[in-house]
Amino acid sequence: MDYVKAFVIGGLICAMVQILMEKTKMLPGRIMVLLVCTGALLGAIGIYEPFVEFAGAGASVPLLGFGNVLWKGVKEAVEEQGFLGIFAGGLKAGAVGISAALIFGYLGALIFPLKRKR
């Protein structure tokens, strides 16, 4: 049942983003930034963590979850290091996800080379 719940919640998040993309003139990059910032904001006010406990991977995998991870990393680093934690916390908490995106993006570029249009 956890898989079904994660699939439905993740699908609803993706559907809302798709509607936002189609009904507004916002560029995809701005929508991605909006999602990350929304996840961080919801994490800061304490709403996102209970949502992740309920929805599982359906809430933790999308960009909203990445924003929440950044927020948690910054919060923990500020508690440990003070002001400098603002800069180090998010990078430390999101390092695995960022590294995976870079590595898999590079591997994808090697496997599927760019075809130039003429």
TrEMBL record:
Keywords: Membrane, Transmembrane, Transmembrane helix. It comes from the Bacteria. This is SpoVA/SpoVAEb family sporulation membrane protein. It comes from Roseburia lenta. It holds the Pfam family SpoVAC_SpoVAEB. The chain crosses the membrane at residues 31-48, 83-112.
